[in-house]
């Protein structure tokens, strides 16, 4: 059998390597129109900022290595011009010589990836307008910075690539402006969590513009010097980076009757087979599906591409691996802070019709007496199933390890009650005795069993709609005097047993403290005393202040 793979970055080389591990008899050929293969796309921004000193360390293997190790022929500088799915034939072009030639396949794998999205007015050739998608882009940006006077950089888009490059440009001593079309940055997060990230970005000296797009540019001799935005403002710039996401490269198969998903990426089955016989697809050209509900999900990531490649290589050679979907997990460093997410956001879960419980958990990543710093965890659970649906975390302390625990829990269908029973590693340098993961599970399970949480945004909305609450501030008198929720009554926890008759037991009551723990004790007490409906303001006054600022900023 002859296996032909088109594309040789993360997914394509994984296909070839796994297929060869399974079979020594099949012929395996990989065609790549570029010159670089099997490189670390996700590491490229860190070369621009100097954290990776040698770009070649991101390209650990070349075609000769693959030939020697796997007996796989990787042909670089070769572009596939067309595919005849009926004859199972290819027309190819040698980009160095211009020569056209033909080849055939028994099984074809599309690992063509995606292409950066380009918008007007940048859809012309400008010397200082770049994307960050491959090694060619990386070398071009670095060369331009070395040979031209650059101080002001403008980045359009606030996805992971845009934010990584923001940080790395600033490490290089440059002034950075972020421009976002929508009203919030980081649209894979809930608005209130993205707002927290935005405050970190602004605090580090980055200028952020939202709800605007580029209208026209000022350019001379192919160099952009200014960009006029849709709000009529003009920003001066020495370099423009377009980080607006990607579009799957399906052009080679658009003439076929091949199924695509809502994203425009190719549909595949669990073996990575498309709807056209003998044609498989992997990586960024493919639409995946949600582990939670099976709905289509396009979230191109290098980790997913590698996984898909391995599955396809196994399937091609008689193996039993299958693709089980993704959660859309992502993580990014923002200077000294990390923000990560997995699964559904609150907005997505509600839009899908889930009845959700929302917890804001503010806890240090390790013991505060050893300088542990607070993380904000926003966790969403389904009230009907008790299962965890999604988590977002922002902080400086162990964000990566905790998001991965939550990923594991969601993937394995854990209920929130299960989180509390995890035997996680504890030592005060690395965790607290009741780890934030355990506390998240405990608090959500309590909420699902009568200790209801009320997110600050929901409280504000219900108050605006005229709903009546009695709001109880259970902090100290001094803390209340310094600042409190409007119309709240101050009744410290220690005084409630003596003073609860001052309250109306039939009116829905909201308790709050600084972060939610003391308010939970007050909630328990009031319910035990016979109050009919008592909510705990999720995340306490600390979270309320941030969410209210976010709502005012919208």
Automatic annotation (TrEMBL):
By its UniProt entry, which InterPro entries does this protein fall under?
Answer: FAD-bd_OxRdtase, FAD/NAD-bd_sf, FAD/NAD-binding_dom, FAD/NAD-linked_Rdtase_dimer_sf, Pyr_nucl-diS_OxRdtase_dimer, Rhodanese-like_dom, Rhodanese-like_dom_sf
Entry keyword Methyltransferase: no
Which of UniProt's keywords are assigned here?
Answer: FAD, Flavoprotein, Oxidation, Oxidoreductase, Redox-active center
Q: Which cofactor does it need?
A: FAD
Q: Which GO terms describe its molecular function?
A: oxidoreductase activity
Rhodanese domain residues: 465-546
Signal peptide (UniProt feature, chain positions):
none
Q: Record's family?
A: Belongs to the class-III pyridine nucleotide-disulfide oxidoreductase family.
Which protein, by its recorded name, is this?
Answer: Dehydrogenase
Organism encoding this protein:
Latilactobacillus curvatus (Lactobacillus curvatus)
């Amino acid at each position: 059998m002859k296996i032909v793979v088109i594309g040789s970055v993360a997914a394509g080389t994984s296909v070839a390597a796994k297929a060869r591990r399974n079979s020594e008899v099949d012929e395996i050929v990989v065609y790549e129109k570029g010159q670089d293969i099997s490189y670390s796309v996700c590491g490229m921004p860190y070369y621009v900022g100097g954290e990776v000193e040698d770009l070649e360390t991101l390209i650990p293997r070349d075609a000769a290595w693959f030939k020697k190790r796997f007996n796989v022929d990787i042909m670089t500088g070769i572009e596939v011009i067309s595919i005849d799915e009926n004859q199972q034939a290819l027309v190819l072009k040698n980009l160095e010589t211009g020569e056209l030639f033909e080849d055939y396949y028994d099984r074809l794998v599309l690992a063509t990836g995606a292409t950066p999205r380009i918008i007007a007015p940048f859809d012309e050739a400008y010397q200082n307008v770049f994307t960050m998608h491959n090694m060619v882009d990386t070398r071009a940006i670095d060369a331009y910075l070395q040979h031209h006077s650059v101080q002001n950089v403008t980045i359009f888009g606030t996805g992971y690539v845009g934010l990584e490059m923001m940080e790395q440009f600033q490490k290089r001593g440059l002034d950075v402006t972020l421009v976002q079309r929508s009203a919030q940055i980081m649209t894979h997060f809930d608005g209130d969590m993205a707002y927290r990230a935005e405050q970190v970005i602004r605090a580090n000296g980055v200028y952020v513009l939202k709800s605007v797009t580029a209208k026209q540019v000022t350019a001379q001799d192919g160099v952009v010097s200014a960009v006029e935005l849709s709000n009529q403002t003009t920003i001066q710039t020495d370099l423009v980076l377009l980080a607006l996401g990607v579009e799957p490269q399906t052009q080679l198969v658009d003439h076929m009757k091949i199924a695509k998903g809502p994203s425009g990426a190719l549909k595949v089955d669990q073996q990575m087979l498309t709807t056209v016989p003998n044609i498989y697809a992997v990586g960024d050209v493919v639409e995946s599906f949600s582990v939670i509900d099976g709905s289509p999900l396009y979230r191109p990531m290098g980790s997913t591409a590698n996984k898909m490649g391995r599955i396809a290589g196994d399937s091609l050679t008689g193996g039993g691996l299958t693709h089980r979907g993704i959660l859309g997990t992502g993580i990014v460093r923002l200077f000294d802070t990390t923000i990560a997410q997995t699964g559904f956001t609150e907005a997505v879960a509600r839009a899908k019709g889930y009845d959700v419980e929302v917890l804001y958990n503010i806890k240090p990543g390790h013991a505060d007496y050893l300088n542990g710093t607070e993380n904000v965890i926003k966790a969403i659970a389904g009230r009907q199933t008790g299962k965890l649906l999604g988590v977002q975390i922002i902080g400086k302390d162990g964000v990566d390890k905790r998001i991965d625990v939550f990923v594991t829990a969601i993937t394995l269908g854990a209920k929130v009650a299960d989180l509390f029973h995890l035997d996680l590693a504890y030592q005060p340098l690395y965790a607290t005795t009741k780890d934030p993961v355990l506390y998240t599970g405990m608090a959500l399970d309590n909420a699902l069993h009568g200790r209801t949480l009320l997110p600050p945004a929901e409280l504000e909305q219900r108050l605006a709609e005229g709903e009546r609450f009695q709001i109880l501030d259970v902090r100290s008198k001094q803390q209340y005097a310094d600042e409190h929720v409007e119309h709240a009554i101050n009744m410290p926890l220690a005084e409630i047993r003596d003073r609860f008759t001052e309250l109306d037991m039939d009116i829905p009551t909201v308790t709050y403290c600084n972060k939610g723990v003391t308010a939970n004790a007050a909630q328990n007490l009031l319910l035990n005393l016979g109050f009919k409906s008592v909510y705990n303001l999720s995340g306490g006054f600390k979270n309320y202040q941030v969410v209210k600022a976010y709502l005012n900023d919208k």
